[in-house]
Amino acid sequence: MPLLRQVRRIVKDNYENPKYFVFMIALLLLVILPPFTVFKNGQILMNISFGMVIVMGSIFLSSSIRELILTFLVGMMGLSIFLFFTPDDYFWFSIGTLVNFVFFTYLLSISLRFLIKEEEVDANTIFSCIAGFLLMGISSALLLFFVHNWIGNAFELPENPEFYDFIYFSFITLTSVGYGDISPTHPIAKSLTVLVGIAGQFYMTFLVAIIVGKYLSGGKSQGDDNHHPLPPE
Fold first, then answer.
1. Rounded to an integer, what distance in angstroms lies between the CA atom of residue 116 and that of residue 172?
2. Residue 180 falls within a domain, yes or no?
3. Residue 201, in any domain of the structure
4. Is position 233 within any domain?
5. CB within 10 Å: which end of the chain, N or C, has fewer?
């Protein structure tokens, strides 16, 4: 079918040259918008940003139509559960948290795969690095949030805690800032917090190694191409 071939071509083109800038902007909105949900239309903007991440992550990062459909369905499933259920609906909200964790962790694996296979460092590579860090922070927040709800009071939190508290805690742990206003109290929560902190440092090390290595490799290749041997006398 012509339409199917057209979709396959779009998926192939986006996978070979993913637009990480647009995806990064969607992730940034997802991270910074939650505090504004208390204002009028704030929750609508939050849901729109979540939908943007699902659509752009599915279109720009999928390598096949099957992968695109599967990624989109998993993302929409997680969003739908968060829309129709509250934390009081413990079972379904926990399922939604796990589904979203799988979704964002999968997108993180695609982003890392792109960084590894990319041969040159350009703006898209930098945007991919930032998107990967944001994905790691959101995935970690979802995992810690699930553990807190599953165990019950696994973290010492401010009064009337929300999911955004875990996003905040995840990123300050990844960056090894650690203000101390939120702290794990259960042994499992402590172990996961340590792993999140280690993952953040490993990501920075991996990032520097990848970027510097590819930059030097690209410069060396360019120098070899510009080198012309002297003609024989």
1. 26
2. yes
3. yes
4. no
5. C
In a domain, 224, yes or no: no
**Long-range contacts for 46-50 (Cβ within 8 Å, ≥24 apart)?**
47/79, 47/83, 50/79, 50/82
Q: Phi, psi at residue 19, to the nearest 5°? A: -95, 80
Question: Letter for the amino acid at 203?
Answer: Y
**Number of domains present in the structure of the chain:** 1
Q: How far is CA 209 from CA 70, 203, 214, 217, in A?
A: 32, 10, 8, 12
What is the pLDDT at residue 138? 93
Rounded Cα distance between 151 and 141, Å, is: 15
62/13 Cα distance (integer angstroms): 10
Predicted structure pTM score: 0.82
CATH for 87: 1.10.287.70
| C-alpha to C-alpha distance for 66 and 72, rounded to whole angstroms | 10
Domain coverage including residue 27: 2-217
Query: Distance of CA 6 to CAs 13, 22, 52, 56, 215, Å?
Result: 11, 22, 22, 18, 35
Residue 132 per-residue DSSP state: H
Q: Where would I find the beta strands (DSSP E) of the chain?
A: 155-156, 183-184
Structure letter (DSSP) for residue 19: -
Amino acid at 117: K
HEC per residue, 29-84: HHHHCHHHHHCCCHHHHHHHHHHHHHHHHHHHHCCCHHHHHHHHHHHHHHHHHHHH
Express each pLDDT in 150-207 by its tens digit: 887 889 888 877 888 899 999 999 988 878 888 899 999 999 999 999 999 998 888 8
